[in-house]
Structure prediction request, 166 residues.
Amino acid sequence: MQISENFFGHYKEFVVVPKEEKEEGMEEVFVPEDYASHYILTFSLYDSCISSWKEADKFHVNAENSLKKVVAQLNAKKKSLVRLELLEIDDEITYFVLALSWKEGNNNEQNMRGRIQVFLEKDFSTDLLIGETWYQLIGAKGKFERRLFTYTMEKYEPRSAGSYED
Prediction:
């Protein structure tokens, strides 16, 4: 049996762009009310080989760009659960700050922190460690323990409109 040249001539009728592909590159609008919990996370490298983020260039790592890339990828992949936002990274310091908003509410704060910790260590750290080659920024102890960061997690309670100080 021979297939004619025009067998797939009307293929365009069957093209359906996957939903994730259509939305790629479009920044989702952040609506705080859609999330049950908000945290401010401050990260520093565990067993660091650098004394400031500008030194990461020596290891062919652009810390800010790779952080933004991982944050965007995780936001797209986990949008039904979590949203990250890079708040601060400065070439002269050795830490960075992220905002994390979690959709599912949990009355037990300890359980909530445990779930966030698993997300940070399984997804976020792994994507930076392996995907963005941040393993180069930590020493032998960090590599042996497969630990990229130390971090603090503070629950964020937004101020009411009338409580801002001038």
